[in-house]
Design goal:
Its main location: membrane. It is a peripheral membrane protein. It comes from Apilactobacillus micheneri. Keywords: Cell membrane, Elongation factor, GTP-binding, Hydrolase, Membrane, Nucleotide-binding, Protein biosynthesis. The chain is of the alpha+beta class and 596 residues long. It folds into 5 domains: 3-182, P-loop containing nucleotide triphosphate hydrolases (Rossmann fold, 3-Layer(aba) Sandwich); 195-279, Elongation Factor Tu (Ef-tu), domain 3 (Beta Barrel), CATH 2.40.30.10; 298-367, 2-Layer Sandwich (Alpha-Beta Plaits); 374-481, Alpha-Beta Plaits (2-Layer Sandwich), CATH 3.30.70.240; 507-595, Alpha-Beta Plaits. Helix content is 26%, strand content 33%. It contains 14 helices and 31 strands. The strands form 6 sheets. The protein has an 8-stranded antiparallel sheet. The chain has a 6-stranded mixed sheet with strand order 2-3-1-4-5-6, sandwiched between helices. Helix 12 (504-521) packs across helix 14. It starts with 5 loop residues before the first strand and ends with a helix.
């Protein structure tokens, strides 16, 4: 395909605005896939995507479009997620695109991820095609949606907003025409040395790592000797091809094409997303600018439940290839054994990773309660950065101060919901920076601790605003806060997996809630087990887990003193045998605490 007939584009939208349906309709119109024997939402092929109804990771597909003049165009669609947790996946896809379709639901209007994804597109200087979907719905508010799109950016006023129904196919042909007319062709040099960007990768048990690439310059041939520019590691590609959307081998890819390279590399750490692949014999001089490093928002421990550590290690390494947003490092817990400390983009991302480990790799895991990253200043002014594990927090007597991360949060909310949103932000220890009126919306800018917004803030915001509030975050700085560590003892033995870092104002209430929850979810023994929470060496909450049966020594039955003493001695011996190493912590404990 000639470069002037290639268009590389993505579709950006808020969750459930019809992005996957539009992708299906584009593939159907271009005869890319026969839908006679296929179900809908082909690009969402993972079980977790189908069960949750969201796109988790980007997929790619090449479509051949024939316009009215008989010209054939290669339209490479690079799919994007719509959930707030997966903005990094969106940035990966847009880095390989030359333009985007901004899709808005006519019944819901511009929402949080609409704004966030649009800003990512503008930061990449990509042309935008605004499209309103579901215009055939009886609840469609087209005029309102158009005004909200114009309010996003003054430059969009000059755009012709397309009105479509992806479900019925209404005006989807106009979308294809706009892609050809408004999205520029790739501007690479086909005669220059090979320069290709890795924007994604997957792991295949037989083929090894398969890198998804955008060819910027030159030609890529099958069985060519290549190298990574970050570490000069050489390899010979076993196969190259395109996405239809399944993998289809080809003999050659040119500048502007989107395709894949079968590297044959079996080491999961051997391929880095954002790296540049070039020819080993005729390498390019400058690499393609890579992505910004992903910033994990919450951290949690993942430990094997029934399987061994090596199986979990292999599963996480393979999963990290399909999910470059996943950060992990080896960890060891006294109560849970060997495992990993992992970083996630948010709570939904954590849930998806847990389900994929169970469904895709058949590994039962225990996921500890999540927390954010802290910075500790010791008494000698020595700083300890990146405390992402509460168990690694130094003793309080050695700490001078603790700093927690803050985000700058911008929210556009309807004026009718403003007071409720401000109450939510104040309850989350937010600091109001600015308040601006924008037609019938109010823009609120807050400084908010990441620990407060990482868990359920976004869902609460959607609930109180009826889904009409926008939400955009940007890392601000670390600030000194009155942070304390809650330690949990079970039978007077510390359990490192049940350690929490919270603000002092919330410590007492949270500790009481945790120990009372443990009373009902912790496995019982034949004798009472004390559970207590303490902060800075002081017990602030305690409860006794009742035994499986009555205490024989104090059951009220008439027994001789010697028999009661013998029973008490045996019970005390059994109690002393319990330590944190043999305390059983099932997943329901962490799920129950997370619900608090």
């Amino acid at each position: 395909m000639e470069q002037r007939n290639i268009r590389n584009f993505s579709i950006i939208a808020h969750i459930d605005h019809g992005k996957s349906t539009l992708s299906d309709k584009i593939m159907q119109i271009t005869d890319t896939v026969s839908f006679r024997n296929h179900e809908s939402q082909i690009l969402d092929d993972m079980d977790v995507e189908k069960s949750h109804g969201v796109t988790v990771r980007s997929r790619t597909v090449r479509n051949l479009y024939h316009d009215r003049n008989g010209q054939t165009y290669e339209l490479n669609l690079i799919d994007t997620p719509g959930h707030v947790d997966f903005s990094y996946e969106v940035s990966k896809s847009l880095s390989a695109s030359d333009g985007v379709i901004l899709l808005v639901d006519a019944t819901k209007g511009v929402q949080a991820q609409t704004v966030a994804n649009y800003k990512i597109a503008k930061a990449n200087h990509l042309p935008v095609i605004p499209v309103i979907n579901k215009v055939d719905n009886k609840n469609a508010q087209i005029d309102m949606c158009e005004q909200q799109i114009y309010d996003l950016d003054d430059s969009l006023i000059e755009k012709n907003i397309l009105h479509i129904s992806a479900k019925t196919g209404l005006n989807v042909d106009q979308v294809l025409e706009s892609i050809v007319e408004e999205i520029p062709q790739p501007n690479g040099d086909i005669d220059a040395p090979l320069k290709s960007l890795i924007f994604d990768s997957i792991y295949d048990s037989y083929k090894g790592i398969i890198a998804y690439v955008r060819i910027y310059d030159g030609k890529l041939r099958a069985n060519q000797k290549l190298k990574f520019m970050s570490n000069n590691q050489s390899f010979e590609n076993n196969e190259i091809g395109i996405f239809t959307p399944s993998l289809k081998p080809v003999k050659e890819l040119h500048s502007g094409d989107i395709g894949y390279i079968v590297t044959g590399i079996k080491d999961p750490k051997g391929v880095r997303v954002g790296d540049t692949i070039t020819s080993k014999l005729e390498p390019t001089i400058h690499a393609v600018p890579g992505y910004k490093p992903v910033r994990s928002v919450v951290y949690a421990g993942i430990y094997p439940k029934n399987s061994n550590y090596d199986d979990l290690k292999m599963a996480i390494e393979k999963l990290s290839l399909n999910d470059s947003s996943l950060y992990y490092t080896e960890d060891n817990s006294d109560s849970l054994g060997q495992g990993f400390r992992c970083g996630f983009l948010g709570m939904f991302h954590l849930q998806i990773v847990r389900e994929r480990l169970i469904n895709d790799f058949d590994i039962s895991v225990i996921v500890t309660n999540p927390n954010v990253n802290y910075r500790v200043i010791l008494n000698g002014n020595e700083a300890i950065n990146n405390i992402d594990n509460p168990a690694k927090m130094p003793n309080f007597s050695k700490i001078n101060s603790i700093e927690e991360p803050y985000d700058e949060v911008k929210m556009k909310v309807p004026s009718s919901s403003m007071s409720k949103v401000m109450d939510l932000a104040n309850q989350s220890r937010g600091i109001l920076i600015t308040m601006d009126n924008d037609s019938n919306l109010v823009e609120l800018t807050y400084e908010l601790p990441v620990a407060e917004i990482a868990y359920n803030f976004f869902n609460k915001l959607k609930s109180i605003s009826h889904g009409y509030a926008t939400f955009d975050t940007k890392f601000l700085e670390y600030k000194v806060s009155d942070i304390v560590k809650i330690s949990i003892d079970v039978n007077y033995s510390p359990v490192d997996a049940l350690t929490f870092i919270v603000h002092r104002n919330n410590a007492s209430q949270l500790a009481q809630s945790i120990v009372h929850k443990l009373k009902y979810v912790m496995p019982k023994k034949l004798y009472p087990i004390p559970v207590q929470a303490y902060v800075e060496g002081r017990v602030i909450a305690r409860v006794d887990i009742p035994p499986l049966r009555k205490n024989a020594a104090v059951s009220g039955e008439k027994k001789s003193i010697s028999k009661k003493q013998a029973l008490l001695r045996r019970q005390n011996i059994n109690k002393r045998k319990i330590s944190s190493a043999n305390i059983i912590l099932p997943q329901r404990i962490f799920d129950a605490i997370l619900g608090i």
